[in-house]
Amino acid sequence: MNTFEEKMWERREGEMIGEKRGRQEIARRMVEMNMALDIISKATGLTEQELKALKQKNCSVFSIEKRQSISLTLLSPKSRLQNRHT
Q1: What confidence score (pLDDT) does residue 38 get?
Q2: DSSP per-residue codes, 4-55
Q3: How many CB atoms lie within 10 A of CB 55?
Q4: What's phi and psi for 58, nearest 5 deg?
Q5: N- or C-end of the chain: fewer Cβ atoms within 10 A?
Q6: Between these two residues, 43 and 61, which has the higher pLDDT value?
Q7: Residue 78 — very low, low, confident or very high, per pLDDT cuts 50/70/90?
Q8: Rounded-to-10 torsion of CA 16, 20, 26, 27
Q9: Is 71 left (phi over 0), alpha (psi -120 to 50) or beta?
Q10: How far is CA 69 from the centre of its chain?
Q11: Residue 82: is its pLDDT beyond 80?
């Protein structure tokens, strides 16, 4: 393979990675809307295993965000202001 062909192949690989990430982002939003995994799988081309992993990851991220928001509400107004500026 010559240099031009190598660069074209690298570009195509990058495009494929970007397309996959786009499908994953759409699937993540569909999971958040509690759509059926089989429908999401058909729409995005992701496997149900990938979707289950995405759903599990999404739930853990939500619980972390929820815990952070709860801990911030427990802080006094003065300490909240200090946290914003650090």
Answers
A1: 92
A2: HHHHHHHHHHHHHHHHHHHHHHHHHHHHHTT--HHHHHHHH---HHHHHHHH
A3: 17
A4: -65, -40
A5: C
A6: 43
A7: low
A8: 160
A9: alpha
A10: 20
A11: no
